[in-house]
Amino acid sequence: MGSTGTFDGLPPLFEHCIDDYRPMKVICIGAGISGILTAIRFPQKIQNLTLTVYDKNADVGGTWFENRYPGVRCDIPSHSYQYTFENNNQWSEYYSTGSEIQAYLQRTARKYGAYRYMKFNHTLKGATWKADEGKWHVTLEDTTTGTTFVDTCDIYLSATGILNKWQWPTIEGLKDFKGKLVHSANWEEDTPLKDKDVALIGAGSSGIQILPTIQPIAKRVDHYMSGKTWISPIGFGSQELKLRGATGNFKHSEEELEKWRKDPKEYLAYRHHIEAMVNEASLITLFGTPSQKEFQIINREAMAKKLEKKPEIMAALEPAFPPGCRRLTPGPGYLEALLEDNVEFINTKIKKIVPEGIETVDGKLRKVDTIICATGFDTTLRQPLPIIGEDGVSLDDVWNPTPECYFGIFPPKMPNHMRFLGPNGGPGTGSLIHLVECAAEYMIKVVQKLQREYIKSIVISPRANKQFSGHLDKYFTKTIYTQPCKSWMKRGKEDGRVVTLWSGSCIHATVAFENPRWEDFNYDLMPEIVGNEYSWLGNGHTLAQHEERVTTEYLDKVNIPPVINPEEHTPGGVAHSVTVPGLL
Q1: Which of 158, 328, 344, 363 has the fewest CB atoms below 10 angstroms from its CB?
Q2: Distances (CA, A) of 497 to 66, 160, 283, 321
Q3: The domain 24-163+381-525 belongs to what CATH superfamily?
Q4: In the 8-state DSSP scheme, what is residue 232?
Q5: By CB neighbour count within 10 A (0-12 exposed, 13-18 middle, 19+ buried), where does 506 fall?
Q6: CATH number for the segment(s) 166-232+297-321+323-376
Q7: Are 471 and 503 in contact (CB under 8 A)?
Q8: Which residues, by range, are in coiled-coil regions (predicted)?
Q9: In this structure, are residues 114 and 52 in contact, taking their beta carbons and an 8 Å threshold?
Q10: Sign (positive or negative) of CA dihedral 293, 295, 299, 301
């Protein structure tokens, strides 16, 4: 022993308690559903953590902060579109409006203190991995002051969602229009609609919601739709509509809301009922099965019946691909709006936009006051910002030509970088928020491992990434998603690799996320354990022992096994009468 009371020649962590975890700094970009969750769960479960969540907007909410177009609402039942730990038993409607969802997210963020970790009006400008430091250097702009700065972290999270870069359509003369031109994803409240001649371009999820909302107030609506799409009478959780005799949507009665306020357990049972319905939707994604064929017949018959007064619209809309190959949108009121006298459905392609309106390829000019472009987002997954990983490689180059992301979380060659809803990390069916929660738990385990075992960096191995991608490709061959349809799931292509969805149901993904396969990763170690990677075991004690605190908390966390023979009750113990199926 040396003169200072320490042991000479022993590893740096010899005096270290095993649970004295090293400090970790995490930066999360995005304060939508995933970013709010990060600011709630990471501080709850990770010791010695410094966390900052940056967002370009002025508040939380992500897509629900940004999307404010007329008729915006979720096409997932509200009771399935909420955090598992924060039940809102007062949703006013079955499919809630965007403003009600935004209020829920703000309230949840306030309740659990998420705002403490957030900095708004900050735009990501780039991020670079510094291997020698084991840190990311993240460049940001404070848009309120115009200043640019660099923040550093051990872990860089992306929580910006799948589709977050809206884009104008590529139409000649778009900017020559002299009236009001607006994009659905960048809605302006002063957009003139009442008693106006309006052109609505596009019939994706936004366009389908906008049309029935503006049709009653506009003088005329020219609806341009050159593609094909299914407008399903059966959306996610729509069995509940049938049970209640409702069409499209319904409001919860005050009596029902009062019942749920008084009895949270009854509301939880109702949530079980709704989520079970939502989870069932995965059965129609397997191409050629009886369920999938029946679903297609139901969709066709329902559309044809609603459009029987204008069969030419049915002929123009009906796709050759199965329902669900493109993102399926129920669209309450959309088909009905197409039949109204002040709506003209136009499937002739647009030639150009002129100062006074839109000219189609047949030479016809239709003059309008307002043009709404519901034309969606950039679906290429190209990265406009420099995200620089191992050996100076950019994420944009890594994802060219094929975006890959192990478990939808780890991009190749990007150490200590994890993504919510990355390529092949999104649900095709089921509860998106539940899946995001499970991904967060996976990420927390990653951070805890690096922290506990003094690991500097973690990156997916080329072998594991290749085999995971190979599994994805084989799985999707049996699904509706690889049928020929132009879809953002395939980066806007008709035929191509499915790059956004998980290879299975949402429930399947949650099971897969439970136990990370640590053997699939490559690691770099912190200097403290170089030479002996078990040095993190330290001095053989815990912090509780070192600080003379309670060391018996495990007695309060016992998972009691089922009792098979109650007659063998131990004196002084607790009798548990648990019946085990098959052992009566």
Answers
A1: 363
A2: 29, 22, 21, 16
A3: FAD/NAD(P)-binding domain (3.50.50.60)
A4: -
A5: buried
A6: 3.50.50.60
A7: yes
A8: none
A9: no
A10: positive
Q: What whole-number distance in Å separates Cα of residue 249 and Cα of residue 240?
A: 10
pLDDT in tens, 172-224: 999 999 999 999 999 999 999 999 999 999 988 899 999 999 999 999 999 99
Q: Where are the domains of the chain?
A: 24-163+381-525, 166-232+297-321+323-376
Q: What phi and psi, each to the nearest 5 degrees, are found at residue 541?
A: -130, 170
pTM: 0.94
Using one digit for the tens of pLDDT, what is the confidence trace for 346-369?
A: 999 999 999 999 999 999 999 999
Tell me the pLDDT tens digit for each residue of 326-343. Answer: 887 778 899 999 999 999
β-pair type (135-142, 147-153): antiparallel
Residue type, 190: D
Phi-psi region of 208 (alpha: psi -120 to 50; beta: other; left: phi over 0): alpha
At 321, list the tokens: 């691909």
Length, in residues, of the chain: 584
Residue pair 413/392 in contact (Cβ under 8 Å)? The answer is: no
Question: Checking phi first, is residue 504 left (phi over 0); if not, alpha (psi -120 to 50) or beta?
Answer: left
Closest CA to 440 of 457, 425, 420: 420
Amino acid 249 reads: N
